[in-house]
Design goal:
- The chain is mainly alpha-helical.
- The chain has 10 helices and no strands.
- The chain folds into 2 domains: 62 residues, Orthogonal Bundle (Arc Repressor Mutant, subunit A); 136 residues, Tetracycline Repressor, domain 2 (Orthogonal Bundle), CATH 1.10.357.10.
- Helix 9 packs antiparallel against helix 10.
Length: 231
């Protein structure tokens, strides 16, 4: 199966350089247009006009509208991942770190909702783009699963579903669906505060079986022992 990175590079005509003003103009135009209408209704000519470049110049940077959308999503996903790194890296206060990550995710979906909704809707309709979205999600799943493994080995998280990856997968997809439906304003819906409080509680109880994680006990099993190496 073709990887998400391969799909993105296939649609990107050239590797972006930091500070490339024309590429930034295309991405900015795409984000503005997505706040007004779905990707399917946006033409290449509109993107080029919005970026104040010619149609041929557009194709110098991107091979398609989908490639533009992917570039936008990659940036947003990087922001979300950075917000999660505190918990992923092993914060001593998991509740605080999870809360910060969830709050950052809710804010990204509020601030960049048109782009993220376009991504979900486009990839739901186009199976050829599924690998890219899977790659985005798997980055969070794998990192979260590894944190769960470490905490179980240290004794700060109790045994749960045999596969940490299965638990991480369910939790990450739960976040994605909740953020998506809330950004649509579908009822019943939650405020950002309610969403953050609720998802944080679910994560804490699913991973730690408590709203406050246990402290590492004396004689805890050393990291790397007692759990399979992979989910």
């Amino acid at each position: 199966m073709e990887s998400g990175a391969a799909i993105a590079s296939r649609g990107r005509r050239r590797r972006p350089r930091k500070g490339d003003l024309k590429e930034e103009a295309i991405l900015g135009a795409a984000e503005r247009l997505l706040s007004e209408k779905p990707l399917s209704d946006i033409s290449i000519d509109e993107l080029a006009r919005g970026a104040e470049i010619s149609r041929p110049a557009f194709y110098f940077y991107f091979g398609s509208k989908d490639a533009v959308l992917q570039a936008l999503v990659e940036r947003i996903a990087d922001e979300a991942y950075r917000a999660s790194e505190k918990w992923i890296a092993g914060s001593e206060d998991p509740e605080e770190a999870i809360r910060e990550a969830v709050a950052a995710g809710a804010k990204l979906w509020r601030d960049r909702g048109p782009v993220l909704r376009a991504a979900v809707q486009t990839w739901e309709m186009d199976p050829a783009l599924h690998p890219f979205w899977e790659q985005v999600v798997n980055r969070f799943v794998e990192s979260s699963a590894e944190r769960i493994r470490r905490d179980r080995r240290a004794g700060t998280a109790p045994p749960g579903p045999r596969s940490p990856k299965a638990l991480a997968t369910a939790l990450i997809w739960m976040n994605e669906r909740c953020f998506y439906t809330t950004s649509l304003g579908l009822g019943p819906s939650l405020s950002d505060r309610e969403l953050t409080d609720t998802l944080t509680t679910v994560w804490m109880r699913a991973v730690y079986r408590s709203d406050a994680p246990a402290q590492e006990p004396a004689g805890a099993v050393p990291e790397g022992a007692g759990e399979p190496a992979s989910g």
